[in-house]
C-alpha cells in the first residue's frame, strides 16, 4: 500500500465503515453485536469486535441448495491490536468449518519472508500469493458480487497527497509504502463438499482483500488527515446507523 502504517490504520478503518454502510439495508448487511476492549498475551491490547453478516443475496446459488438463505448468516469475531489482528469467521450451518485470518502489518514493500513466524512444517504447506492493488480487477463471481471498484489506479492521483499513479514497479519506488501480510487458514472437514467450499471461501476472501484495499487508496482524499479519535467516533456513529437501517 502506498501509505505509512499510521495512515493505513485510519484509511482501512474508514474504508471498512464506508463499505459496510454501502452494503447494509433493511433486508441484509452488517450487524455489529459487540465492541469491547481486550488484552491478550500474544496480540496485546486492542478491540474485540463481533459481527453478523446477513448477505443472503451474495451467497452462490449452489450453496443455497443446502439450506434457506436465512441459515447462511456469517459470524465474525475479530481481535484487533494494530498492527496485528486475528479474525475467525464461521457459518452456523457449517458448524465444523472455520476460516481464520491472521494479519501482520509491516513498513516494507512485501519483502518479509515469514512475517507470521511460521514453523518449518507450516512454511512447507504455505501457498504465497501477492495481491497488487494496481493490477487489473478480475471479473469472477466474487468480484462482481462484492462490487470490485473499477477505478484505474494506474491513472489515479491523490489530490491531497500527490501519490499515484501506481505504475509498474510502484512497490519498489513508492515512499511511503507498507504491506499487510494475511495468513488465511480454511478448514472445511465435510466429505464430498469440503474442497469446493474451501475454494469458494478462499476466492471470496481474495476478492474482498483486493476490493477493500483498492478502495482504501482510491478514497485517500476522503480520510487523509483524520485522527484516530475521529475514526473511533465515526465507528460509534456507524454502529448506530447500521442498527437503525437493519431495524427499518
What does this structure look like?
Helix 1 crosses helix 6 and helix 1 packs parallel to helix 8. Strand 1 and strand 2 form a beta hairpin. The chain has 248 residues and is of the alpha+beta class. The chain is 35% helix and 23% strand. The chain has one domain: Alpha-D-Glucose-1,6-Bisphosphate, Chain A, domain 4. The longest helix is centred in the C-terminal third of the chain and has 25 residues.
Q: How many strand elements?
A: 6
Query: Treating each run of at least 4 consecutive H or I residues as one helix, how many helices?
Result: 8
Q: Span from first to last CA?
A: 37 Å
- Tally the structural domains: 1
Q: Give the name of the CATH superfamily.
A: START domain
C-alpha geometry: globular
Share in β-strands: 15-25%
Structural class by sheet pairing and helices:
alpha+beta
Our Rg estimate from Cα atoms comes to 18 Å
Briefly note the CATH topology name: Alpha-D-Glucose-1,6-Bisphosphate, Chain A, domain 4
Q: Uncertain spans, ≥5 residues at pLDDT below 50? A: none
Notable traits:
alpha+beta, globular, Alpha-D-Glucose-1,6-Bisphosphate, Chain A, domain 4, 248 residues, 23% strand
Secondary-structure blueprint:
Layout: H1 5-22, E1 29-40, E2 44-54, H2 61-64, E3 74-81, E4 84-90, E5 98-106, H3 120-125, H4 141-146, H5 170-173, E6 179-187, H6 194-218, H7 220-223, H8 228-247
Antiparallel strand pairs: 1-2, 2-3, 3-4, 4-5, 5-6
Helix pairs in contact: 1-6, 1-8
